[in-house]
Structures are given as structure tokens and as C-alpha cells.
Amino acid sequence: MQKKILGWRCGNRCAIPECRKELIIDRTENDCESIIGEMAHIKGEKQDSARYDPNMTDIERNSHQNLIILCRDHHKTIDNQPNTYTVEKLYEIKRLHESWIKESTGKRVIDITFAELNIVTKYLISNQPVPSESYVIISPRDKIKKNKLSSETERLITMGIIQVRQVTDFIDKFPDIEFGDRLKQGFVLEYNRLRNENQISGDDLFDGLFDFASGKSNDFKVRAAGLAVLVYLFEACEVFEK
Ligand SMILES: [Zn+2]
After folding, report:
1. Same domain, yes or no, for 8 and 28?
2. Residues 149, 177: one domain?
3. Is residue 107 part of a domain?
4. pTM for this prediction
5. Rounded distance, CA 181 to CA 171, Å?
6. Distance 29 CA to ligand 1 centre (A)
7. Rounded CA gap, 235 and 237, in Å?
8. I need a surface site. Which of 5, 51, 157, 175 has the fewest CB within 10 A?
């Protein structure tokens, strides 16, 4: 979970402001993604590491607050130049980077269009016959509480809620009248698979569905669209504990 929180906050980009290089290179036709980012400890990991602080516990050392994601070159640079990249300087770089990512993600959320929704709904759609049972609407806020979702997940849901109307419009305008139901069913099937086969719940379950909804894409817009659809379905479907 610490790594996931860090991953979201860093937006898959190097935190050094002059760099901000993308750290995941998209998959190609023949290969999967290539990760060129590295997780660095602000206060060093081992006794002989740069910026080591003996007065902290291992849990504190490996918490997302003490980690920063950088490209390979900058990871090496900060460790070779500890007098330039002090603990204070790195905390500041991390803080500025995370707020920059938060701002740009917020902006992208507003920008999603039918084009992105078209992409993500393809991942979610089920081609199996639609059962006749109806879906009950439950307030997301109640679900967040009952499923013990963290404030980090709640923040994501709040971001997705902004776009739910866009998703509703998209589904209403779709020529196939069963589209909305097939979308819900695809989501319910994945929810059940994650829960029963992978035995996960709460935040991990939400993360799993989020990855599924955005086709594991790293593209900002596709992820925002995946989140919007996920939150729409989260509201509309009888899933998660209520
Ligand atoms: Zn870099």
C-alpha cells in the first residue's frame, strides 16, 4: 500500500523539477512496459547509505513519506551529491512534485471526453448475456465507510464523482440500449473474480478495479476516464459491502 500511495502521488514521473521524465515506457506490440523509475529513500535505507538517520524505525524508513520516486540518473545524482540534495531539500522537492501532480491530475479529470470513455468502457464491457436482476443505488459515502476504504481511496472517489454525469451522458447516448447493463455486468464479474479468486477487499479491491477499469494504462486521461467509470459503477452497482 505504501508503494501504491507513492505511485499515485508521484504520477509516474521523476520528482526532480528540471526532469519530470515519464518513468514507465508504454508497452509495444511485442513487449510489455519498461519501468525506468526507482524508489529512493530520503533518509537513507542502510547505515552506509546517504542521509541515513539511526533515530528512525524501519517502518518510518519505508513509509511513503520517506520515499521519493526518481529516474535512474537522478537517483544516482542525489546519492552522489548528498551536500546538495540534503534531507530538507529532498522533502521540499517531494512536496512540490506531489502538489504539481495533484494539480495536473485534477485538471485532466475535467478534460476527459467521450473518446477516453470509449477506450475504458471497452475494457469493462461484458459480452455475456445480461441477467434480469436490477441494481440498487447506494450512496458512495456509505460504501466508503462500510468497506473501510482509506482517505486516499476516498480522495480518488471524490475526483471520479466530478465526472459521473459525463459517464451517464455517454451511456445514454450509446446506440446499444443494453450497453449500460453490460458495462455493469463486466464490472460485477471482475469484482467477484478479485474478491473470490484473489481474496482481496477494501482499498486493494478498489485498486484492482481501478487498474482493470483503466486497462492498466498509464495515460493520465485514460486513468481519469477509468476512475470516472469506476465511480459511476461503484454508485450504480450492488457491489462492495453496503
Ligand atoms: Zn530525473
Report:
1. yes
2. yes
3. no
4. 0.49
5. 10
6. 27
7. 6
8. 175
Q: Output 199 or 114, whichever has higher pLDDT.
A: 199
Domain co-membership, 38 together with 70: yes
82 is written with which cell numbers? 548528498
CA of 13 to the centre of ligand 1 (A): 8
- Residues 120 and 96 grouped into a single domain: no
Poorest-pLDDT segment among 95-99, 105-109, 189-193: 105-109
Centre of ligand 1 to C-alpha 39, Å, is 12
Q: Report CA(37)–ligand 1 centroid distance (Å).
A: 8
> Distance between CA 48 and CA 205 in Å, rounded?
38
Residue 142, domain extent: 112-236
Domain co-membership, 170 together with 202: yes
- Alpha helices in 23-163, H assignment, sequence order: 58-61, 72-80, 87-111, 114-124, 140-146, 151-161
143 and 68 in one domain? Answer: no
Higher per-residue confidence, 129 vs 210: 210
Q: Are residues 22 and 65 in the same domain?
A: yes
Provide the number of structural domains found in the chain. Answer: 2
97 CA to middle of ligand 1, Å?
Answer: 12
Checking if the pLDDT of 78 tops 80, the result is: yes
Residue 160 forms part of a structural domain: yes
Cα–Cα distance between 203 and 14 in angstroms, integer?
Answer: 25
Residue 82: partners with Cβ closer than 8 Å, 6 or more residues away: 50, 51
Asked if 74 and 16 count as a contact pair (C-beta separation under 8 A), the reply is yes
88 in the same domain as 23? yes
37-76 pLDDT tens trace: 898 999 999 999 999 999 999 999 998 889 999 999 999 9
